[in-house]
Amino acid sequence: MNDADIENAIKARFAGGALVWPIAWPNQNAPGTVPFIALDIVPTGRTDDTLDGSVPIAEGFVMARAVIGEGTSTSEANRKAHEITTLFPRGLRIAVAGGGEIRVIRHPEPLQGFNADRKWIKPVRITFTVS
Amino acid sequence: MKSFEAQVRDIAKMTEANLNYVMKSSISDVLVAAQTTQIGIGQGATSFEVGKIPVDTAELANSLTVDGAKGPESYVVAIAGMQIGDYKRFAWTAPHAMPVEVGTSKMAGRHYVGANAAKFSGFVAARVAEVRS
Predict the structure, then answer these.
(1) Residue A65, strand partner residues
(2) Residues near A85 by beta carbon (within 8 Å), at least 6 away in sequence
(3) pLDDT of B8 strictly over 90
(4) Which fold has domain A3-130?
C-alpha cells in the first residue's frame, strides 16, 4: 500500500466511470476547453492502533472539480458533480494493486460552487481510508 | 488523608479538566496547522505544500473569523472559552478562500482547512496520550 498504488486505483475508478468529460489528473495540465473534471488526491495521514504496527490505515480525500465556462448554467456542473458522487458511494471498496483496499467512509460531499479563472467550479470531496 | 468520596471527586475533577484540555488543544491544533503559512505565488513561490495557507498579502490568513472576531489568531480566545458540547464555526472569509482551499481550473487546492480537519482524530489521539502519560 503506497500513495502511487492508491492514486492509480482512484484514477482507474474515474477513468472507467463513463464521466464523458476529459479529466485533468493531478499534476497534469487541464485541457484548454471546458467542460472538464480536475482532481486532487490528498493523503492526510496514516494511523495504526496496533502495538506491533501491523495494520496501517492510510487516510485521505479526493477533491474533484467539475469545471464549466463562466456564464453558463450551473446545473451542468451540478449534474456532473452528482455523477461523481454516485461513482463513489459510501461503503465502496476499491482494490489497491499493492494490497489492501480503498474504502469510501462518508457520503461524497458536493461543496459550494464558485467562479475562478473565468470558469464555474463545482467541487466534490470524497473521503476515504485505505487498509 | 482524604476520604474515599473526596478522592473520587478529585479524580472526577481531574478527568473533566483532562477532557477539556484534549478538546481545546486538539481543536487548536487544527487551527494552528491551517494557519501555518507558506509563500504564495504572488511572492514568487514555485511550489507549494498541501495543508499550509499561502500568503501573498496575508488577506486570507487574516480573514479567519470566529464569533464575530476577525484576525489570524481570532481562534485563540474563542477556543479558550469553549466548553465541551459547544459549537463553533471557524470561517476564512476572504473572497479567494474557497478557490485556494479546493483548487481551480488552473491550480491544485492547498487544502489548508480540509487536510488539517482530516487530521483531527490524530490530534486528539496525541493529546489523549499527553494526559495519560
Answers:
(1) A38, A123
(2) A107, A108, A110, A124, A126
(3) no
(4) STM4215-like (3.30.2000)
Compute the distance between CA of residue A71 and CA of residue A50 in angstroms, rounded to an integer: 53
Average pLDDT over residues A39-48: 92
CB pairs under 8 A between A and B: 67
Instruction: Count Cα neighbours of A7 within 13 Å in the Cβ-side half-sphere.
Output: 11
- Extents of the domains making up chain A: 3-130
What pLDDT score does A89 carry?
98
CB-CB under 8 Å, B102 with A65: yes
Q: What is the pTM of this model?
A: 0.87
Check the CA dihedral B25-A130-A46-A125 and report its sign. negative
DSSP B103: B
**Which residue from B98, B106, B121 is facing A30, i.e. has the nearest CB?**
B106
